[in-house]
Amino acid sequence: MKMSDRMEWLRLLPKVDLHLHLDGSVKPETVIELAAAEGIRLPADTPEGLLPYMQVDEPCGSLQAYLGKFEFVGRFLHRPEALERVAFEVVEQAAAHGCRYIEVRFGPQLHRDRGMTPDEVIARVIAGLNQGEVQFGVKANGIACCLRHHGQLDNMEVIEAASRFQGRGIVGVDLAGDEGAYPARLHRELFALARRKALPVTIHAGEAAGADSVYEAIDRLGAARIGHGVRMKEDPAVLELVKERQIPLEMCPVSNIQTRAVSGWAAYPIREYFDQGIPVTINTDNLTVSGTNLTKEYHILTEKFGFTPAEIGKLLLNGLEAGFMEETDKRGLRRHLFKRWPS
After folding, report:
1. Is position 207 annotated as part of the catalytic site?
2. DSSP string across 78-97
3. Among 6, 72, 97, 189, which is most exposed with the fewest C-beta within 10 angstroms?
């Protein structure tokens, strides 16, 4: 199969993206319009000129350098209409690459400089996702992120707000941010509250910190999924725990290399994890910051790790089964996937 044909085949496959950050997926064109509406002068007036401020260089030095790209965009996401718009556009971008289901994560406390409450932030993001769902046929839910560097009260507000929207567009909660500087153990009480609220939990772990971070996320914070999990192989016992419990990994190949979770593609353990039967899922993390999309992510797997069409099919199914969606939605997507199952 020619590369162009393979890329189109991969683009059309019905895909799932479970690890997709709202503020890392804003289009440069949108930033130009949002800045103009607020009278803010930008360092460039074209999408191409803005990209260096929004997208990481190759290679990126660290997770901290990667996270720095969010600051530039974040200042434009404090108005209700801006949040609604970028949420809609994330669905649009996902639809262009065959996504049938996405979970979009965002930190409600990051968008409150103009006076919105956490509930208002969540409501606006969900409104945008719902509009995108209607227009593009992509089922879209939200995951509310607590931030590692935020205080307990701020994060408790997020959990409480998320619980009020559970079943109305929010399907889970997350812990994101600088994993190395703010270990998950600082947030045990926070996620005990999430469990009492019966909120599904996914935790960023095993990216900037080692296998002990993954263990903490699972054993003490109640993670049903792990965001990234790249470094869990550093402790065979943790690797075995994830394998035994069949805990899905939200791996984001392009981003994982950019943040230096491993030294390079030769050290990236995705084939090892997959071959051991761990439910690996493939995701984008940040469309704009990483300059990626799901077609590109799956193409890398075929080129660098030799994933066959049947194995790609298994990865697609892993993503579907790991989603925090309603079982009725899952059944419909499962039927659609099996019609297109790669063999």
Report:
1. yes
2. -SHHHHHHHHHHHHHHHHTT
3. 189
